[in-house]
Records
---
Amino acid sequence: NSYGGIWLISSSYNTVSSNNISNHIFGGIYLSKSSNNQINANIGSNNGPVDFVGGIFVGDIILVMNSNNNNVSSNNVSKSNFGIMLAESSNYNTVSGNIVSNSKGGIVTFLVSNNILSGNTVLDNNLGIWVYQSSNNMVKNNTVLNSRTYGIGVSSSNNMESCCNNIIYNNNLINNPTQAIVYTDNNIFNLEAPIGGNYYSDYDTPEEGCNNINGDNFCDEPYVFSSGWDNLPWISPDGWLPRGNTPVGSNVQINPDAHVSILYNEVTTAGDTTVTQSTTNPGPDKDDFMFLGNYYELSTSAVFTPPVTVCINYDDIACRWREKRISRYSTGVRVEQAGMM
């Protein structure tokens, strides 16, 4: 029940790691005018029963003020006023991989810019992630769930210039009464495909207005919320993560085997392409073919638009015939276009 836990003031290049910090009135870990510190793998709870002292936010598990280029990662914080807060000219910090729960505010920024909030799990808080009077921050790859009011919010005072150009994308927003809300202009909730926007648990079925007719894994219509919209909402959680070795796109070339390369004209749904090599003829036999050693079975879970070009490398020393007479023989699979080299 002391006033403060760990304080760094005008102190840089420190590592604060693996501490258990609880029951402090003025916060767990406090940085002021400090830079290039590593704050990671700490556990904090029940810090800060008060909201303001002398005009300064207190009662946070991790409070970073007027401090730059710090890394706050892999901490587990709960039951505080604000779980993690970046305040008053704290710029170019990275907040990643933290778990923040059961607090008034999960992760909050105030009068800061150019920070990255990434890969955090923010759950069961009053507010999830709140960007207040802050600009040019990136909020991505977070999961915000079961907030009691808002999932992700952006707001400002009368100074509209201090609140804009935040980029918020590839976040999972799950079971928040209000998934997203903005009170300012010029904030972005999606990038161009294939990166896209965010996932919203109340907008992922046709009954909720989310259709995926073209199979690109985005809802065909934007997700619209108070004073904002997401033009490319994902139809499933973590939809932006790589799925297999065959991504969405045009002229997608992969090499699933040392001897085989495949060029897809267009892949509309990502998947995995595999090649199984064998010396046994899968049949049926074909009388007018003489097989040259290996057999290749190609399969894919990706959805694609033909043609597909398949190139197979072979040892021409073993070839006793004119190479221009070499053909491919396929069974059970339609090959739109094939080549050998």
---
Amino acid sequence: MGPSASTASAPLSNRQLKARMKQAEKKLEQCSHVNQTPFRSAERNFKSRTPPPDFSNVIYPSSQPVSEQLVPVQLTQDLRMLSPHFGTSDASWEQRSHQAYVLKELPGKSPTHDNEDRHTHVILLGLVIIPNPFTPTAQRRLIQHCLSDYPQSPNTSNLHTHYHIPPTGLWPLYEQEQNGTIPMDDPRHFVAKKHSNTDAEEEEEEETTQRTLAIPLKACDDTFKPDMQVTKPDPPAASTVPLLSATDLLRRLRWITLGYHYHWPTRTYHLNRRFPVPDVVTSLAKSVVCAIEQVGHDGVWKNTYSAAQYQPEAGVVNYYQYKDTLMGHVDRSELNMEAPLVSIR
């Protein structure tokens, strides 16, 4: 008899069961981790192998029926009418062109509201979720920008610290490698590494860096306050990075900065390194801010930020491989905490 369509997993041994029980107990212990914030607890849950992650509370805005934690609200503007970069309208889009949600916590779900009526819903103020407003063509065009255009100079990436990235980015080299115009024995096949300091120079530079980092390094801490005047030395190149081709380096691309460059060690911006935010990104962000103006829920909360005064000045493009994740976090590096943060995923 052939294998069935659904095969049950093998039973666990006593040793495996004990290991899973210990892991589960450790996840519940508040003092078992140095950083036991709600975000980090969620991260440890979703990355856990033993026991397997619990996805029962994961919310999918596009799923049907809609989760009871999502409260429908109406956008004040049609995004595709505000910016052509979302794509063209059609009958399907017109049915949901103003659709959005705010998120609520269900009674008994959150340990942070012990003094509140457990029979009332707590609206998470400030978060507006817009189900995918892009057409497939518009999505592909935006991905193309992120791979071929935005990594170009003057924008910088995590790779610039260690490699001499061409001003045109890695994409042209990648295309040449893929179509065979740069053979393996061609020196251009590999992207040159930057010179790294000697051990003595690295120790001296590390001491200098530690003296200049006068602020906490955890931007998610409640007490974090960005010190814009702190010295911001560029991280030194590492001597241990391998010599790689553009194809291999693309898989190691994690982020690029747009507009004001971001200094990751101090979690602050380089105010003296300001460059234009790409027109497409500006158009998308301003359209979202315009569409959520005056959006709220039942008098509990309303977004009163004026879209007319909004101007994108900085952004980060994150790149993900299959095993990469981005967990919840709080951006406290912004100089203007009133302006909306627009996240496109």
---
Amino acid sequence: MTDSDIDKTNEAMNSLLPDGEYRKICLPLFLEALKKANSYGSNKWGAYYYDEGVRLLVGNLIVFTVHKKRIWLALDKQLLNERKDLWKLLDESDLWHWETGDYSEYKPVPSMNGYYTPSNKDSDIWPIVRDLHFNYLEKLANKYTWLNIKSQPKHSDKLLDYLKHELGLRSIPFPNYGEAEIAEEISSEESSNLYEGAKKQITVNAYERNPTARKKCLQKYGFKCSVCGFDFEEVYGDIGSRYIHVHHLKPLNEINEEYKVDPINDLRPVCPNCHSMLHKAKFSIEQLREQLRIHAI
């Protein structure tokens, strides 16, 4: 990050959280939650700042937001229902207030949400809030394979660099959305074949496996097969969420040493069956789509 980027981020954060003492209290709490989320996988979370504060997301949901004077958190509803004593302690505390608006609870993974007001004094409430929050993070991490693809672009490495500098840390976790396992995209026999470029040899699926290129392709085109329209999540539910292969369109004779994959123009999402047929028949997506149309009659 350049000095200019650092200055801009510092300026933005000082505007969002102008009270220096408050930042010293709440940012370590935010970092603690971030590290907990990261412990379940570096592809499951993201963090960013916006005009109302600093946010942490896990899976499909916002879980932690630092506002100017208080912190919004999602707590494990199931555990609260099992431990009425904890619910009572929160109800009686001046430092905790339940959310009453649109985000009072989540239903996909049940939560009860509210606001914690950090204090300079030792608080008996924060350990309770933290444990209920951490329990919820674990459940989200078990449900969602990785951070929602629509939320991934919101993540801000600049925020993490700011936290590292502001809190005097040697290191800080960064998300990696390319870590999710990608299934075999062509057979081992095919992938062992080498194709000659202008001056060097490459494997066909090197471009299809590139996690950064894959991510950008799927952000553009989504997870439905470009040939047959198959959607794994529609058919299989949650276990099929975000599952798809990525196919490389560019003819091999156009690939040379200087070639750099263009995720938008060179890649398309395809299901495994169509992917195999594209490689086997050496068809374009349009040709295979026409083949399907003919044989569906």
---
Amino acid sequence: MSLEEEITICQFGQGLYAAIHLLELFEQVDELTQYRQLDELCLFLWRIEPDEARVEQALLQETKRVPPPAVVRRMYMSNSKLSRTFQLLEGDTKNRYASLLAVFKTCYQARYAAEKANPANWWYRDLSNPAVVEEILAGHQRLIDELYHHPSYSSEFVCLARLWNDEIAERLAESQQLAPKHTAPYSFVSYDEISELFGNGVSMIGDLSSSRNAQARSILTHSLGKALSKQYKLEYADVIRVISEVTRLHLRTRYNVESPWV
């Protein structure tokens, strides 16, 4: 979830947007992105650590709106505080998202009422004020710029960008190899084409070099995450977003590459 998207979700929680606005944005993205946004909203609900009774209340309202067994509860532990999120198992993706938005708003508004007088997190600041929103975005961009030029983290980000560039090039090459050579409709792949693909080491589960690349990226990201979280007092989700944005900046400047995978 980008920072702009997170701000929009919080503005919805504060009553600045109607659910229909977010649902319209939701419908504009592809199916894979919709599932990602569902997961991200579940995690965001978890991060605000809502009161258990309010979650129960919100879940009850959604159970009345969506016939059982559409709603299933999932339990999470966070800093020894029990919080609950839910996922709709039936119905279309839009209905699932609409229900999750309703539960999020119920839980968020209670937390917002308690925190807004002295917010420790920008989530509970007055996001109806354009100056506040601009300050949040500007502060985030300053951090991205600082880390891009930070000598203590330069080698890690350069290495991460190189690994991603190699991974992107490999994925593109594989997608071109796997693209069907036939132009006529309903043509079957020939035995020779299958032999050629697998003879060249193309595999649906990826080869050893890709696995090593992913492992190296994971180690680097984890190391950077721990350091940045400690130095800048960032939550895990915020750290991952910052690392992704700085890495994408290195990819653009060093390799002229844009990718949604990073």
